[in-house]
Amino acid sequence: MKVFILSLLTILLGVLIYINISLNQAKTVSNQVDKEYITHSYTITKIDRTGYYGKADDGQSIYIKKENVNIEEPIEENDRILVYFEKELRKDGLVKVEVDK
């Protein structure tokens, strides 16, 4: 009988640990949604085999590696793109790229 109760308590402990881990992951995802982003608009000026070169209306330039762009539609020269950056990590905080239509 003691072995049976010990087994049930062990299973209950395992379930509680699993629920705790699941809730912590859910909190992490919800915190990421609440982040603030900075957006900048660029016109693609050149495309090479590794990435895209863009220029903003104010003259600021950008280079984005192709591996950092996860969109369905192809980007071509003279397309306008909207680039999202994390507010705290402006330099390396590229979050998302959208084609601005």
Can you give me a brief rundown of this structure?
The chain is of the alpha+beta class and 101 residues long.
Task: For this entry, give a set of tags.
alpha+beta, 1 helix, 101 residues, five-stranded antiparallel beta sheet, rod-shaped
Structure report:
- This protein is α+β, with helices and mostly antiparallel strands and about 100 residues long.
- The chain has 1 helix and 5 strands; from the N terminus they run αβββββ.
- The longest helix is centred in the N-terminal third of the chain and has 32 residues, at about 1-35.
List strands and helices in order, with pairings.
Elements: H1 2-33, E1 37-47, E2 51-55, E3 61-65, E4 80-86, E5 94-99
Antiparallel strand pairs: 1-2, 1-4, 2-3, 4-5
- Distance between the terminal alpha carbons, to the nearest Å? 70 Å
Unreliably modeled segments: none
- Radius of gyration from the alpha-carbon trace, in angstroms: 23 Å
Strand content: 25-35%
Gross morphology: rod-shaped
